[in-house]
Amino acid sequence: MVRMPPLPPLDPRPGRDATVAVVALGANLGDRRETVEHAAARIARLPLVDDVRLSPLHETVAVRPEGPDPDAPTYVNAVALVTTRLAPQVLLGMLHAIEEEHGRERRERWGDRTLDLDLITYGDVTSDEQHLLLPHPRAAERLFVLEPWLDLDSEAVIPGRGRVAGLVEALRADAAGDRNGDDHGESTR
User: Fold this and answer.
1) Helices 88-101 and 32-44 meet at what angle, rounded to 10?
2) From the candidates 32, 85, 113, 142, which is the catalytic residue?
3) Which string of DSSP letters, residue by residue, matches 108-175?
4) 151 part of the active site
5) Has residue 110 got a pLDDT over 80?
6) What is the DSSP string of 49-109?
7) Is 113 in contact with 29 (CB distance < 8 Å)?
8) Which of 42, 118, 142, 189 is labelled catalytic?
9) Average pLDDT of the residues of the chain
10) Which of 7, 33, 54, 88 has its CA 20 to 30 A from that of 148?
């Protein structure tokens, strides 16, 4: 009788290789900190999500299309590194469902919100599909995304845009120039 080696255990979740997606989380209504932390825990419970690492929370001024709004409720922002086997379109749909679970209403562009979840990157995937823009088209301009991301990964890169550390440095330099009277305008949220 010939003995065969035992078969390796079957992966209960076969298919797509795991990829690290970057998700930005933000809230400026309600219990902001609890909402962001709960949303990260909810993402961790999604099917085909293997790990979620949440950055420290950052408090930031609200930004409207015309610029910073110091009169609006401040945001709590964070970034999560999500190791997942979900396709990017599926992950994005599930992020929108989590926003809805938290009472998110889309009434005004860049308005106040109970929860905002943005898919910033999905590995090195790039997409210009209308319903899946990757990397997120404004991520490289948003310190409230980039700074928490650096808290988790000092070597982070936005495909096609460069190292996150370099983008943060350029945005901070630009903001310092604005405070010194230069007329560059702020580009954030």
Assistant:
1) 140
2) 113
3) STT---S-EEEEEEETT--EEETTEEES-TTGGG-HHHHHHHHHH-TT-EETTTEEHHHHHHHHHHHH
4) no
5) no
6) EEEEEEPPPEEE-EEETTEEETTSPPEEEEEEEEEE-S-HHHHHHHHHHHHHHTT----ST
7) yes
8) 118
9) 87
10) 88
* pLDDT for 67: 84
Q: Which of 64, 104, 138, 161 is catalytic?
A: 104
pLDDT in tens, 5-56: 665 555 554 568 999 999 999 999 999 999 999 999 999 999 999 999 999 9
| The pLDDT of residue 8 | 59
| Separation CA 58–CA 79 (nearest Å) | 10
∠ CA 134-153-186, rounded to 5°:
60
Residues 156-174 have a mean pLDDT of 96
Q: Is 104 among the catalytic positions?
A: yes
